[in-house]
Amino acid sequence: MARIIKNINPLDLKPSTGIGLSLPFNGPIGFNLNYTTKDQFRNNILNFLSTAQRERPFQPNFGANLRQFLFEANDDLTIGEIKSSLQDSLNTYFPNVVIDNIDILQSIDAYLMNVIIKYTVPNLNLTDTLTLEFNNGNSQ
Hints:
Layout: E1 20-22, E2 32-34, H1 37-50, H2 76-93, E3 98-106, E4 112-121, E5 126-135, E6 138-139
């Protein structure tokens, strides 16, 4: 009989050890720390999705460039282009993350776009869903 072994990041076994910074920066000293790899993966992907290309110094290709699609036509072609662009860029910068599903919801009446990404990190047995809303050029 096969036995499934769950991999656990060694940092997750030390609950008092911070792994990285949490978004947004609104903690008591300016920022909060993440203490689990699941939270850190979530914040890393959120940071990537919120960043436009050529916005990050020394890494001009970093970022999902989602704001460029906000004022595009609300049709299947544009949504397919967004999904393809996201899949390619996430595979480049997060090779250990498997994208299970990407949903793009756009509003016809308002300049609003919701990006819902379900992803898995197989070697850590992590599964999460991330929702990001772009509204009038701002992400939330």
